[in-house]
Design goal:
Blueprint: H1 2-18, E1 33-40, E2 43-50, E3 55-64, E4 72-75, E5 79-84, E6 89-92, E7 96-98, E8 101-102, E9 115-126, E10 131-139, H2 140-147, E11 152-156, E12 158-159, H3 167-173, E13 183-191, E14 194-204, H4 206-216, E15 228-233, E16 241-244, E17 250-253, E18 260-266
Antiparallel strand pairs: 1-2, 2-14, 3-18, 4-16, 4-18, 5-6, 7-8, 7-11, 9-10, 9-11, 12-15, 13-14, 13-15, 16-17
């Protein structure tokens, strides 16, 4: 019996290394993700860590804010109140594609999740090959070409260029709104095979937000890591998060409670 117990314990330890993202929280908390906080540069980061297979991109079409849904996740790409003529739905200004289809329907015309606002940073999870791709792309056809199949998700935003000394030039080129204003901010970052959804309700500049994220991942400008990168998502009053901590306490970061267009959700 003692020998059998030792074998079981050894297998349990082995599995904890083989499947590092199989369970995230403690007793009573969520099991598909981990919520945590981190503070640096006088910026508090609220972080959802999960596996990319738990991510699904969805459209709310300005029907609700995140707080008033049952979803776990954060706000997504930038958007406006304009109506997309081909779908009669509101426009989203960033790529948001699940398995080859934009978040709004299947019509690939207009701002329905098939296009970025020009060439912008795009995180792609290639589920078929189990790896992340980071590309600066304009549309879903370019995503499909980069991946070569439809078993993926892709979220667009503005490149954070983590570890790069020329990141300011990049956010100018990709037209990050209000980089020097002190507002709430949102990001999506991948590291290794993990995905991190990050929101701060600290009103801060893009530089301070990015700096806190770099400290979280142990990165300095001039020393990038090949397996870590991220994008700025919509900020200000759009910065929202809904999650549960390890004690099953609901975490609601509300922004200004505005209705959202597109969100990044996590399987609970």
């Amino acid at each position: 019996m003692k020998k059998r117990f030792s074998i079981i314990m050894a297998l349990t330890v082995l599995l904890s290394f083989v499947i590092p993202h199989s369970s995230f929280a403690g007793i009573g908390g969520p099991t598909s993700y981990k919520y945590s906080t981190y503070s640096a540069n006088n910026v508090k980061l609220n972080v959802i860590q999960t596996s990319p297979g738990n991510i699904q991109l969805k459209a709310l079409n300005l029907s609700a804010n995140l707080e008033n849904t049952s979803y776990i996740g954060i706000n997504g790409g930038f958007f406006s109140n304009q109506v997309e003529e081909t779908t009669s739905m509101k426009k989203t200004h960033n790529i948001a594609i699940n398995n080859g289809k934009p978040v709004i329907g299947t019509d690939k015309a207009g701002n329905n999740g098939w296009y970025n606002s020009g060439n912008q940073g795009t995180i792609i999870w290639d589920a078929k090959n189990g790896k992340f791709l980071f590309k600066v792309l304009n549309n879903g056809w370019e995503v499909n070409k980069a991946v070569g199949h439809n078993n993926y998700w892709a979220q667009g935003g503005v490149s954070m260029s983590l570890g790069s000394t020329s990141w300011k030039d990049t956010i100018t080129k990709e037209k990050l709104p209000n980089p020097d204003g002190k507002v709430q901010r949102t990001a999506m970052v991948y590291s290794g095979t993990g995905i991190y959804l990050i929101v701060t309700d600290t009103k801060c500049t893009a530089e301070a937000f990015r700096g806190a994220i770099q400290q979280y991942f142990g990165i300095k400008d001039g020393s990038p890591k090949n397996d870590v990168n991220g994008i700025f998502l919509d900020g200000s009053g759009s910065s929202q998060m809904r999650a549960y901590d390890n004690n099953n306490k609901l975490i609601n970061i509300k922004g200004d409670s505005r209705a959202l267009h597109q969100i990044v959700t996590v399987t609970p």
